[in-house]
Amino acid sequence: MNAQAAVTAKPSGAQRALRFVLPVVVFAAGLLAWELVVRIREIPPYVLPAPSVIVLTLIKDWAVLSQSLAATLLTTLEGFVAASIGGIALALLFNQSKWVEYSLFPYAIVLQVTPVIAIAPLLLIYLEQQTAVVVCAFIVAFFPVLSNTTLGLNSVDRNLAGLFQLYGASKPQTLRFLKLPAALPYILGGLRIAGGLSLIGAVVAEIAAGTAGAGSGLAYRIAESGYRLNIPRMFAALLLLSLAGIVIYGVLALISHLVLRRWHESALGKEN
Amino acid sequence: MVERKTSSGVEASLTALAVSLRGVTKVYDNGVMALGPLDLAVRKGDFISLLGPSGCGKSTALRIVAELSAPSSGIVRVARHEGVALPGHGIGFVFQEPTLMPWSNVRENVRLPLKLAGVPKAEGRARADDALASVGLADFAEAYPRELSGGMKMRVSLARALVTDPDILLMDEPFAALDEITRFRLNNDLLALWRSLGKTVIFVTHSVFESVYLSQRVVVMTARPGRIQADIRIETVEPRGEAFRTSAAYSDYCRRVSAALAPSYSGQSTL
């Protein structure tokens, strides 16, 4: 194991650099080809805008787009926080009582497997628009938190559980000092998935809301720009959504790494 | 050591017993008879080994003494000294694996039994450090379990069992997964600890050599369902050391214990 690591460690410096450089080269080449094709064939921007036009639109429309970005991020954050708290709390409840788990788990699955895009219009009828959008983000994001936390709470080492029993640990003590720490890597994995999903949920609900009327999020801007054939702005909003997703994932991955780096296999360097 | 032997030889009354099992059996839910009936009396301060083929129920017997498992029938008595109201504190248990919490450092792992019992943090840390010093790991309090070798993890596990100052130490094949050199060192350290602390030790093993080297009594168990095949007292000059390991008396005892064990592996196979 160690010998193998030592052998592969040699070229890893150059390899690591390539792993960053290559995608960037591909990205640049793609943009360049796109720009050239649009210019040479003189494709009008309402059919396909060149990358330079998209960037210019992003700068020109920044006042509108940044407001929409803030609105979407706020919805995403609210949905994510609700999903995290709800998912973890429900998993803890399931863990305390099998009866509650048997009674409620099927409904959690039903919520998960029913496409949220189909639920959103109904929610928009019954709830205020902003609430409905947050609820959509919550519905999409909470299941991975619930199922991962449940898995984590059930993955406690049997001998450690015996040890806690031997020393007369109370239920709250076992939860706090044994089950939650043991489940932490699983919970963080669930949160990482939930971060991206709450953005998707927010976007889906905004699109549904957008067709119904008012709205201010990025997805609403995309729908609105589509009606007006403002294709460059559609691309600019899409670019912002994509960047937001990447940042959300990166932040959650970083948090997970920082929390687990002292002890969990997933966060340890290869040199061990 | 010699003094303790003479004093415990005089009083054979019930009060001198640390652990007594009478007619203890264990039947699993699937109807398999795992243990017994088993009668075993362990005097205070004794070091006894339970030796037997795998699956003979020796670990089950240990778990019953620790109240981690309930016997199907029979009487279990475990002596607890006065004033120990907290559950588990009369008993320290060392599992087959180190069973450490990977998210806590060594000191916090050792402090766990005290933390669960509500001992103040500062006192708990001081006692954890004392326990770590007694197993030679004073310098590793801040380390995390993954940074330790197998032998060191086992020492941490031993320190955790000792931190509540229990009367009885139950050890379930603690050194089985270690290499021989590490195991010999831990054997010697365990003997030294036992001599200085005067605890009752029940040590489960499947190694004839380890059982003879460590214990005053070797209790040989039969294959499933586990019953007592032989109860062999190991008498030698204390304190034992490497000289005993290479002596003729040692090999004699090993031969006797092996002979007592023979029926369980020459007879019908349980595999």
Structure description:
The complex is a heterodimer of chains A (272) and B (271). Chain A is mainly alpha-helical. Helices cover 83% and strands 0% of the residues of chain A. Chain A starts with a helix and ends in a 12-residue tail after the last helix. With 271 residues, chain B is α/β, with parallel strands linked by helices. In chain B, helix 3 (106-116) packs across helix 4, helix 3 (106-116) packs parallel to helix 5 and helix 4 packs across helix 5 (150-162). Chain B is globular. At the A-B interface, helix 8 and helix 9 of A face helix 3 of B.
Structural class of chain B: alpha/beta
Quaternary status: heterodimer
Q: Major sheet of chain B, described briefly? A: 6 strands, mixed
Strand content of chain A: under 5%
| Number of DSSP-assigned strands of chain B | 9
- The gross shape of chain B turns out to be globular
For the record, give the distance between the C-alpha atoms at the N and C termini of chain B, rounded to a whole number. 41 Å
Helix content of chain B: 25-40%
Strand residue percentage of chain B: 15-25%
Low-confidence residue ranges of chain B: 1-13
In angstroms, what separates the terminal alpha carbons of chain A?
9 Å
Q: Could you tell me the radius of gyration of chain A in angstroms?
A: 23 Å
The biggest beta sheet of chain A, please?
none
Number of H- or I-type helical stretches of chain A:
11
Molecular shape of chain A: flat
Look at the structure and give the mean pLDDT of chain A.
Answer: 87
Briefly note the structural class of the backbone of chain A. Answer: mainly alpha
Largest interface chains and counts? A-B, 22 and 27 residues
Query: What is the H/E order of chain A?
Result: HHHHHHHHHHH
